[in-house]
Amino acid sequence: MLCFDQILFAPVFLISVLALTKLSLGKDIESIKKSFVKDYRDMLVGNLSVWPLVQFINFTYVPLQFRVLFGNTIAIFWNAYVSRIGSRKCQTELQGNSVIV
Predict the structure, then answer these.
(1) Average pLDDT, whole number, for the chain?
(2) Contact 81/32 with Cβ under 8 angstroms?
(3) Is 55 exposed, middle or buried (0-12, 13-18, 19+ CB in 10 A)?
(4) Virtual CA dihedral for 56, 37, 15, 39, nearest 10 degrees?
(5) What's the gap between Cα 60 and its chain centre?
(6) pLDDT of 92 above 90
């Protein structure tokens, strides 16, 4: 089930989250396209770095009554990461500024 989630569901879900986050911030389609490859790659690598290990620990070591709590605790930090990636400005928007997120 974890393989199904990581191979099929996660890539589609991350595309949706990234596009909808940028649209809700008022970005136009062209600016979304410019930053999409880097942002999507960062989110996908982060996803594959975090969730397989979290799920392995959750299903192997965490008692049944604490599994939801454990997963949701990790999800708080994951959602903060996804929000940061989704809301960062692309390089072209930052020309002239010295701060790059």
Answers:
(1) 85
(2) no
(3) middle
(4) 60
(5) 24
(6) no
